[in-house]
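User: Hello! My lab partner asked me to get a predicted holo structure for this protein. The small molecule is NAP, SMILES included with the sequence. Please write out the structure tokens.
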Amino acid sequence: MKNVVILGATGLVGEEVLKILEQRNFPVKELFLFASERSEGKSVIYKTDEVEIVSEYEELIQKADIVFGCLDAPFAREIVPKFRGHAVVIDNSNAFRMSADVPLVVPEVNPEKIKEHTGIIANPNCSTIQMVVPLYPLHQAAGIKRIIVSTYQSVSGMGRDAVDELQYEIECLGLGQTIAKEEASALLHPIGGNIIPQIGEFEGSGYTSEEMKMVNETRKIFSDDTIAVTATCVRIPVFVGHSEVVSVELRKPMSAAQACTLMKDAPGVTLLEDPQAYPMPAQVKGTDAVFVGRVRQDAAFENGLAMWLVADNLRKGAALNAVQIAELLV
Ligand SMILES: NC(=O)c1ccc[n+]([C@@H]2O[C@H](COP(=O)([O-])OP(=O)(O)OC[C@H]3O[C@@H](n4cnc5c(N)ncnc54)[C@H](OP(=O)(O)O)[C@@H]3O)[C@@H](O)[C@H]2O)c1
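Assistant: Hello! Below are the structure tokens for the protein in complex with NAP.
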């Protein structure tokens, strides 16, 4: 049994971690929940216990065995290292993912990396996790040379404020009102009735930070810096569930049927085998697998496969992956 701390317990990811710990009957000895001063004094029910939210973390450092970091990167950078040496932190932010001494783990792909931790294990970006889970068996069988990915990401990937923003904008649109750009504070532009081809900041290369996460994190998880990845990340007006169009070039030939056989047996993957069937975000919300559909030979290059991926970004893209890591730890 472990003492468990959730940093950012009131956020979308923190709440999902709490739900999954209960659903999977994680061996929790005592639970401690931390959030901002705005949440001080509130409480939540875990199993049959009422657990109070605290806004001071110092006292939790000595008590913690396992910490789920569900804070935005600036807060994670400040708070997470304080737990190092006392507990193992599984961190959802992007603060530590590319640090050489922090393993970046997807349990279906590289669980062995957990052993290398020095107090922090990073959870990859949501879009990266859902891409590497089904691609891993193809990489093992034929080696991935190149990945071309376009994402269709839900607003919950940006946290609770973005969800509230879409809800408000849908109501405005229903009343026939237009939405001023200044009202879009969590996202860069109004998202109701719109799509935004920018997630994160632009980097000098013309790619955004979200796109570069998909490049760098995929290489780190597969331990292969030779894989070429190009990503275009787009925010769409969906509440939960990220979707991706992926074209992958392999080093050896592989038919769509062979790829389906490999992905069908892969842990964490649900394959829709009918080539005319496809998963959609509204169906996958609340589920655990990465759903794969529309698998076909890519017509644009040799040894190419194309597919459509959908997963719940709050579960496999964040909280579930973190709890799976904790399960391997204990
Ligand atoms: N959402 C996703 O799909 C997803 C996927 C992968 C990774 N992540 C990462 O997971 C982390 C959490 O994301 P989220 O979507 O859960 O965000 P969120 O819904 O905005 O929640 C943020 C959490 O941080 C707390 N917080 C904010 N300011 C704080 C402060 N000054 N001191 C202490 N706590 C503070 C909030 O507490 P209050 O409620 O008290 O304000 C809340 O618990 C982020 O690093 C994000 O990049 C998210």
